[in-house]
Amino acid sequence: MSARAPHWTEAEEAIIRRFYASRGARYCLERLPGRTLSGVRARAYKLGAHLPSRSRNTVRLEEVVLESGLSKRAVWEAAKDAGVISRPRPGVAVVPKAWAAAYIARSQQRLEAERAHAHWLDSARFAALLGLRNRRSLNDLVRQQDPAPGSLAARVQAVPRLQGRLGRLLFEPEAARRVADWHARRFAPRPPAGWIPLKSLPTERDQERVRRRAHRAGRLALVRRGGRVMGYVPPELASDARPGPDAGGRP
């Protein structure tokens, strides 16, 4: 038979009373050599220290979930990102009341904004208009830092938008459709006769140089093929590019 654990001393119980509700069992265990995690939890339950403190400055996470109308996961992630969540004991999470009030008010404001702009396009619908694969591709354009003027990312970021309760983006439909129409006009159904693909040029440096030259001259054709975008230019704009081995020149 294993030896029975020694009686709890007043000093050990004081540690549990002081730290268990705010720091948890493992924190107490680090300061109680010779004790086990299950033993600490059992003693805390017997002492009543397992109950969360009735602090006037904190509120349970479940209450924030009910008031905000959001999922527990959404509230948890928001509190975690803000660094305000704490675990008084296993299964219980609390946040500061000030943060909870601000979060609930913000969620209600976003809900009212969503209802007032119910006709706005969400990320999935806007991405479909642009011919993108999914809304993640659109979100990448929205988050792109310092996009080139006149680029697709710059035009997407210029579309009026708002953020809903769950963090989803809503876009003003008329401005979004104008960007989609502009984006569609960038692509030709097929390359003009006799034009060559930029990819056929031997080096990336040549490809970029000829692409810029064709863009300035307004003679760059973009064609969608199999989900990829191919650039085509007139051969005379690429006449000074070094021929590659497959073009009959020297390697």
Structural key phrases:
251 residues; alpha+beta; 4 domains; three-stranded antiparallel β-sheet; 11 helices; 48% helix; disordered C terminus
Shape, per Cα inertia axes: elongated
Strand order of the largest sheet: 1-3-2
Helix proportion range: 40-55%
Classify the secondary structure makeup into a structural class. alpha+beta
Q: What average pLDDT do the residues reach? A: 81
Task: Provide the number of structural domains.
Answer: 4
Percent of residues in β-strands: 5-15%
First-residue to last-residue Cα separation: 83 Å
Order of helices and strands: HHHEHHEEHEHHHEEHEHEE
Q: Which parts are unreliable, with pLDDT below 50 for 5 consecutive residues or more?
A: 243-251
Annotation, overall tally of beta strands: 9
Radius of gyration: 31 Å
Biggest β-sheet, characterized? 3 strands, antiparallel
| Number of helical elements | 11
